[in-house]
Structure prediction request, 150 residues.
Amino acid sequence: MTEPMRGRANAAPSPRPRPAPRARPPLRVAPARRGRLRARLLVWTIAAVTVASLFLLVAFHALAAQASFSLDRLDKARTNEQLRYERLRDQVARDSSAPAVIAAATKLGMVPGQGQTVLPGSTSVTTTATPVPANFPSPRTKQALGDNNP
Prediction:
């Protein structure tokens, strides 16, 4: 008799025989879709613009700080020059006052005049000479002119 098939009794017969395994072609990277490429390019562009704008912001801030220091320095210099100008004006006012002029003239050996002579001009009005006091101009000039305000 024939030998019974062991383990194959319940198995269904295979409909087709299996083909021999084929050799696969070498793997390669699939080309990216245009949409993904554009999206990546857009993201990189936005990142580059953001970084560049941050650098520009920092640069402008540094320039503004430098300008602020320059303005502070110039403001101090302007204030100092205004104070110097005021001191010089006061000095000129003191040096050109009547007592200072008289003191300087006396130091140089000048003496007060004895009188004042007015020469007639081309007009028909003539004036006569009036004597000037020896101590003119004096600190009492206001009183001599009739200004009685203290």
Summary: The radius of gyration is 56 Å. The chain has a mean pLDDT of 80.
